[in-house]
Amino acid sequence: MFDYSKSAVVLIGLALFILSSCSSKKNILFNTYQEKSISNLPVYTAQEGDATITSKEQIIQPGNTLSILNLQNEALISGLGGQNMQNLNQSTGMVYRVETDSTVLLPVIGKIKLGGLSRIHAQEELNRLYQTQLLSAPIITLKINNLTVTFLGEFNKQGNYLLQKDQVHLVQMMGEAGGLNNRANKRKIKIIRGNLQHPEVLIANLEDINSLADPRLMLRDNDVIYAQPRGAFQTLDRIGPATSFLGVGLSILNLYLLISNLSK
């Protein structure tokens, strides 16, 4: 005689196994296919990367806004005069947007390409161009206003954060994000940067004091910083939905047995 109760137990067990397998990476993001360790460094890269990955200078990108100031006489490059000069911020200068083609439209010199240049190189190029076309000895400064990084995962405060200066270390910005919570794997903090089609992936081991000296942990515009949970919490995340499912399964089984007994 076929044992329906045993069959029900087997089916519930099979469903539990499938659910557990499907949820095994429920809270894990940004997995990489290959993660190769670099010896003697607290950070390793998952892919071969651009040489600029170690640069401490921010790179100008489309969508950035630039504050440009001539320290000698702002009116000479602002295109403004008289009463309109009151609209200028004397500490930051005029603000210009980098277009999708990486160009910026500036007074006197017109449209020039600044996207892809570091802030220092763009500043040097502006001084050269204005000296050629307008000023004898310009002193022009450039600032990128909207440098942003994103914190996701096991941080106390996830979200987007502005970088207030060119050189900001990962640890400094983690303070802004409220630090890591008690679920975080401190040995595996991922920094994802560059072209989203072929991103650079750095993995920092913050338990190693040497990570503080690594220049690659200076954050760059549009970096995504992700802290994944430790293995124990990944296991708990798997058990949670599986346990709920098991409870439902056992309730169904109890109901089946009760009806079966009453029908006898």
TrEMBL record:
Start and end residues of each Polysaccharide export protein N-terminal domain? 56-144
PROSITE patterns in the cross-refs: PROKAR_LIPOPROTEIN
Classification from the root reads: Bacteria, Pseudomonadati, Bacteroidota, Sphingobacteriia, Sphingobacteriales
Instruction: Give any Pfam family that matches.
Output: Poly_export
Superkingdom of the organism of origin: Bacteria
Transmembrane feature ranges: 239-259
Q: InterPro entries recorded for this chain? A: Poly_export, Poly_export_N
Recite the UniProt keywords alphabetically.
Membrane, Signal, Transmembrane, Transmembrane helix
Has keyword Methyltransferase?
no
Q: Which residues form a coiled coil?
A: none
| Name of the protein | Polysaccharide biosynthesis/export family protein
Q: Which PANTHER family match?
A: POLYSACCHARIDE EXPORT PROTEIN GFCE-RELATED
Q: Does the keyword Ribonucleoprotein apply?
A: no
Q: Which organism is it from?
A: Pseudopedobacter beijingensis
